[in-house]
Design a protein that fits this description.
This protein is of the alpha+beta class. It contains ten helices and ten strands. The longest helix is centred in the middle third of the chain and has 37 residues. The relative contact order is 0.12.
Amino acid sequence: MSRLAQTEGLTDIQREILSTVRDFVDKEILPVATELEHRDEYPTAIVEGLKELGVFGLMIPEEYGGLGESLLTYALCVEEIARGWMSVSGIINTHFIVAYMLKQHGTEEQKEYFLPKMALGEIRGAFSMSEPGLGSDVSAITSKAARDGDEYVLNGQKMWLTNGGTATLVAVLCRTGEAQEGVAPHKAMTTFLVEKEPGFGEVRPGLTIPGKIEKMGYKGVDTTELIMDGLRIPADRVLGGTPNRGFYQMMDGVEVGRVNVAARGCGVARRAFELGVAYAQQRHTFGKPIAQHQAIQFKLAEMGTKVEAAHAMMVNAARKKDSGARNDLEAGMAKYLASEYCKEVVEDAFRIHGGYGFSKEYEIERLYREAPMLLIGEGTAEIQKMIIGRRLLEEYRTQD
């Protein structure tokens, strides 16, 4: 086991779960990850294995067939899975966010219908907030939903759906009211629970999932658009049963998603450190392993410290959320630090590998293309800084 990124105060059950996931990563993910990634192939066998382990229901309450574990347990599992292959953790992440939103905000009927199937991985979730011209300005979404009797009619285009093709349930944010003077735009948004068939093309009347978006990294997992053209959704598929609460529901989901992205950054950084420290002891220059050169030791020292610091901040953010306290400050800090440090640790490991790091035969090449996604997923570094800065001003506001 790695000396780095250890977590104090875990229960025996948490340690057993993590040990099981770690063994699965070492035996079932790491040996095939790079090959599958180069082929941009969906990891079907890996996903089936994780379903058998119960990972898809890790945070779903026991009364709905899940394991009822904490955000911390989930985040630590994600860290281990991302260490094996970040794309696999992405497949789980959007599913987890939708399940979390249902658990926190769904009606009892919605929970009873969706959560048991989600716990088994029979229903797989994705969530859809972003749009082609939107960027980070969620309040400016243009997709609309209009009430028509017992249904809503949805129209618009969404972008950057992780699991857009493979998911069978998508939480979609739409505008359900016109802009009014004095009323904040985000108070007229609603989250809809949209069921669909897996695959591409027209997956239900009025709903089209075009083919996969080609990406520089984060391969294997499908990233898509979503096009709604007269899509009819029953009114009982409004998340929570009451319209115009969608923005707050989505932000709650994104908040735990940021802890997840921080965990992914920790996992990828730890793997990059493992590759770098191993290669530094194997590669010889000037008659000795490069690990014995002071310049490389300094680099390893910086890398290890960043891995440890990011992990500690991620754990703190998860525990704060589990306590029931507001954690947007901690989640923003964790996501910001872990993603930036991940990029830096991966680049340093890449440099340690020298010319071999540029070869597709070496795993670090894959990590080098994967790390940048974490800089923008669940909010860019700039968005995190805005959140952090505003929250710090709230905490440290001086008296006028």
